[in-house]
Amino acid sequence: TFTLSNLGMFGVDRFDAILPPGTGAIMAVGASQPSVVATKDGRIGVKSQMQVNVTADHRVIYGADLAAFLQTLAKIIEDPKDLTF
User: In the chain, what are the domain boundaries?
Assistant: First the structure.
């Protein structure tokens, strides 16, 4: 089982979710916040960012697979047009 815990709607920007017994993983999603970032052309910009944190039982989920999942999730969230045909 993969559980999602979202406290972003309450303005919480980051937190650690505790893995419930019998659950493979739980994802903690915080509120998006404006952040100062470097743009691709080397300039300074402001970008909305959110923190996603996953707690997993490594007896059930291999850490490298979870890391690959998070990379894919980040790409989809950052550029959702890739989901359309």
Answer: 2-66
